[in-house]
Amino acid sequence: MRLTALVPATAANLGPGFDCFGLALDLCNEVTADTDATGVTWEGEGTDELPTDGSDLVSRSLAETARRFDAQVPSVGLHGVNRIPVERGLGSSAAAVVAGVALANALGEIGLEPTDVLEVAADLDGHPDNAAAAVFGGFTVVLRERLVARFDPDPTLRPVLLVPTDARVSTEEARRILPAIVARADAIANAGHAALTALALLHEPGLLPSAMRDRLHEDARLALVPEVRSTFDALRGNGVAVCVSGSGPTLLAFDDGHAPIPDPGDGWRVLRVGIRSTGVEILAG
Ligand code: HSE
After folding, report:
1. Do 171 and 246 form a contact (C-beta atoms < 8 A)?
2. Which residues have C-beta atoms less than 6 Å from ligand 1?
3. How does pLDDT run across 75-107, given as a tens digit for each residue?
4. Ligand 1 midpoint to CA 35 (Å)
């Protein structure tokens, strides 16, 4: 038996929706589990740094899901085709965990519903906002692992990912530097901007440049990567809708349909990807 998990990259936060908003992107990793194979192999992003001894996130999540539900999962070899850049704020860890949980669910015929897959994946990965978009696709708002809403964003939205080629940010570090307590004015500003960002994503993309403003995490994170800060400031100064994707350093911007976002030049990869309406899928073969 061969099953392939197709799972999308995700941009968490969308600026002010810190730890709640997620957007699925049409940039997918594929992990094939084959009962006639052994071992773990990778191609694409992160090939040289991902473990092949079974300690990778897909293998661990698969095994842990089988253990939690006491499921009989056949022994499989795994082959991953990775398209999501690693440690760039695009949810590569959540994608790996969601792939592992979904494969265990299918191989072990556990019968998990998508909200169950999200609950297990969010528990293992620690970031429900990425996991929700990876499980459900589209634009997701997650308040607790089991309270999730999924929406179809405005079809005219054109995401542009600006991925620094060298800079990386560890999510752990990017959370550690954030203050535990925030000023009331900042909390109020984020609540308003988050509400407006959701409306803009669904119905009024023209509002995004002014809606997608954050006062809780982006400044601190951009301070970790000054070269990214200057590109961020230049885009925003030109009226572009831009935010830090997840914990960074990738920037997520939106083309407004008139002037395309300029390529920042050396040191950046520019990926124009659609929004993916479906979350993780398990395909036979
Ligand atoms: N919401 C999380 C953060 C996402 O920004 O830290 C991590 O991928």
Report:
1. yes
2. 12-13, 19, 127, 129-130, 171, 174-175, 246-247
3. 999 999 999 999 999 999 999 999 999 999 999
4. 34
- Pinpoint the alpha helices (H) of the chain: 57-68, 92-107, 114-125, 128-136, 171-176, 184-202, 208-211, 218-223, 226-237
Nearest-atom index, ligand 1, CA of 174: 6
- Does the reported pTM lie above 0.90? yes
CA of 127 to the centre of ligand 1 (A): 6
| Neighbour-count burial of 14, counting CB atoms closer than 10 A to its CB (0-12 exposed, 13-18 middle, 19+ buried) | buried
Find the range with the poorest average confidence among 9-18, 23-32, 163-172, 178-187.
163-172
Q: What is the pLDDT of residues 63-79, one digit of tens each?
A: 999 999 999 999 999 99
Q: Cα(4)–Cα(21) distance, rounded to whole angstroms?
A: 27
Asked if the model's pLDDT at residue 58 lies above 70, the reply is yes
217 CA closest ligand 1 atom index: 5
Ligand 1 atom nearest residue 89's Cα? 8
